[in-house]
Design brief:
transmembrane helix, Hepatocyte Growth Factor, heme binding, Agglutinin, subunit A, membrane, 6 domains, peroxidase, metal-binding, single chain
Length: 717
Amino acid sequence: MDCRGLIRFMGFIVLVFLILSEACMAGIQTIGKIYPGFQGSQMNWIDKNGLFLLSNNSNFAFGFNPTSDVTLYLLVIIHTTSLDVIWTANRGSPVANSDQFFFGEDGTVSLHKGERPVWTPDTGGKRVSAIELQDSGNLVLLGNDSSVIWQSFSHPTNTLISDQEFREGMKLVSDPSANNLTYVLEIKSGDMILSAGFRTPQPYWSMQNDNDKPSIKLVDNEKDANATWIAVVENDGFISFYNLNDGGSASQTKIPSDPCSRPEPCDAYFVCSGNNVCQCPSALSTSPNCKPGIVSSCDGSKGSTALVSAGNGLNYFALGFVPASSKTSLEGCQSSCRDNCSCLALFFQNSTGNCFLFDQIGSFQDAGTGSSVVTYIKVLSDSNSGDTGSSKKGFPFVVIIVVATVLVIFGLLYVAFRYYKNKKRLPASPQETSEDDNFLEGENLDWVCNRRRILICVSTLPFLYHLRESLEGFSAEAAELDTTTYVLMKEEVRKVVSKGKAAGVLRLVFHDAGTFETVGNSGGMNGSIVFELDRPENAGLKKSLKILEKAKIEVDAKQSVSWADMIAVAGAEAVSVCGGPTIPVILGRLDSAEPDAEGKLPEESLGASSLKQCFQRKGLSTRELVALSGAHTIGSKGFGNPTVFDNSYYKILLEKPWMSSAGMSSMIGLPSDRALVEDDECLRWIKKYADDQDIFFDDFKNAYIKLVNSGARWKSL
């Protein structure tokens, strides 16, 4: 080999060495601290799940974590065993896998999205000499003298961890809910307060008002010195507690303890009662989707408004925590709301004269009988309407009374006319005839007609009084109708749905509700499955529908219900029959008169990425995708006992039995099931549910409720 060839060969060896060195360095995690001159993207640590800095005890890691959209990432601190995120740097501003985290030589720290910084800690202009991830999970930025100039514990997101101090001026803010509502925990004047993040915040829990009086630290280790707990402000309005050392298992304790005392246990304006049973208040019974039709009456372009009475059987979560807008009479309170264009509802306490006005409304609470709170809701009205103090629910009463009155009047006029005609045919003396003829002429005739009208009106008064009296009980009976019907439906479903038939019934739910698409708000839980049974993907569902038809006939004999409601309730009961969680179902869905569009259900052959995109179009996250997939734990898919609803599905997924060529193991699961365990984001939830059945049950319940409510068209209950 000549000299030039040797040089080229040596150059090639050096180049390969440099490339391999860079590739090897890219995957190395640092323990404890990193120093200036450090930078990288998620791609650099892709083999370490994007995590580049570990605490000395390896319990916590700092790095990139995927969002529900697997192409976007957040910079987080994560517990390595439970995979629970305890802090996030760039909430609301996720980055791509090529975007860079910089710890510059000049001591500045930042995360960039392209060329634009999306997170920079406020160090007061001081140079950072090192970044340390402590064993407590606290990310600390150290100055030149090793003093702390910034720390994540002083800037929490939605989570507090054991021994983390929570001081006045700090906030925990939940992720946005499906309705884009956030919940905020903060300390004000020495009291810890939990509020709904409406335009004007509405508190719904405070430590001073809570009889249980939890510790001001929210989490402590007095009961178990080795346990590490976190408190999380969830996007459903609860504060939940998780034991990280037990795989992130959830505690039974939640704040607030009553689920109906949260701002939105149901949709806005719905009434929550019992164990999260939701129904439309009678005041909005004729409104589309149980909504008043206005967001703010300050924009007069949508027409005039009216106040309708919702009666005195309702309560509102914020009433015990906010000061009254004024102390006045009911009429004064109504006038204040009418004159305030931002007022959407008022609550008046008869016992105190307190008037409460709100510019945004969450869910109502069922206060039962004997409540002293009167509720009025502002709704759109006809431009000619001037009756702002009457209730829309009174409209049927007025119609019935007017129609009945007219019928009675016409009936009495007819009787009077027949009587008069018959009387004219009777023989009479000339004197009598002459007197009657004179009496029925001119002014005498007018007086007789007026007198008869008076007599007719007076005679109808007792009838109208009793008619109105009989109708007074209508509203109360209607309020009880939903609960009565719901109980009847569950009873009849239990008679026909055995454990062996549960899987087919649950599949019926998924195939009816699974057609929902957020774009265009099409499909959803609408009973259209009855028109779609001949489609190939619905093979075998005719039998399940036939089973439910028996129950529906029994229910319809007492109270007509929609197929959409029947299927939703039946699916929830099928889960419960097999030992799964109890799932409450709202009634009032309308049935579709035609089939939904084809091709909306996820195909069994989809990979994880396509599945996530498909579920995202339906408004469902990756977490909800994995939770709902757990329904395959019952039935013939091969995941454990086919008639027991538990977390066996996830345990068997982790074993990957289809990799074996022996016996029937290779037949277990659908291709879509197998794809989940190969995806890092899905795998996190699979492991969590395999470790903790309670978390799976809770997530499945919430995802099921969201599924059967998505896209539904509602009638009043």
